[in-house]
Write a structure and sequence with these properties.
With 185 residues, the chain is mainly beta. It has helices spanning 7-15, 169-181, and strands at residues 26-46, 50-53, 58-66, 70-76, 80-85, 92-96, 106-108, 113-114, 121-123, 127-134, 140-146, 151-156. A hairpin with a 3-residue loop joins strand 1 and strand 2.
């Protein structure tokens, strides 16, 4: 059985992105069909590995994109949506240091931030739009748009893999669908 379809492995990976004082309430294996993350950071500079704080650093918009299908873990906490890749993937990154920031939610960098960690955790209150549709073979298609402009096209399979490695998949999937269907409320 693949480690991807292992609930203990899923919990371990998702817990690396959960905000302090929160716990994972539901988590499943899913597929990302499209990822388009937009974040604005302040007082930082970028390096090959990620962003680092700098008093002389400016404001930087980072766009992280992927337009192919890949395995993810999708989790919920009391107030956050967590999206973590199952295996290391490559993304297209775009950087913009000449932007109008009047309406931007600028995140201040206080410690190093790896590019891979950008766009992994969102407050549930930041969900701007969520569209849920039935998919093929009992799957559910989920299109999410966040307030910062980030968007995701996800596929939530009916089953959590073969071999019984994810015994709570059906229960957690229903909890995630119910919560996402409520939007930011």
């Amino acid at each position: 059985m693949s480690d991807i379809f292992n609930e203990a492995n899923m919990r371990r990976i998702l817990e690396g992105y959960i905000p302090d004082k929160e716990t994972l309430t539901a988590g499943i294996h899913a597929l990302s069909k499209e990822t388009n993350v937009k974040s604005v950071f302040g007082n930082c500079i970028y390096t090959e590995e990620g962003l680092v704080p700098s008093e002389n650093g400016g404001i930087l918009e980072v766009k992280k994109k992927k337009y192919s299908t890949y395995d993810i873990y999708l989790g919920l906490t009391q107030s956050s949506l967590v999206i973590a890749e199952c295996e290391t993937n490559q993304y297209l990154y775009e950087f913009n240091d000449r932007l109008d920031v009047r309406d931007a939610d600028i995140k201040k960098i206080t410690s190093g931030l790896r590019f891979a960690d950008i766009g992994t955790c969102f407050p549930l209150t930041d969900i701007q739009r969520c569209e849920i549709k039935k998919g093929w073979m009992g799957s559910v298609k989920c299109s999410l748009t966040m307030k910062d402009g980030s968007c995701f096209k996800l596929l939530l399979p009916k089953l959590g893999g073969v071999g019984g490695g994810m015994p709570h998949h059906a229960q957690y999937r229903e909890a995630i669908i119910a919560r996402l269907s409520r939007g930011n409320g």
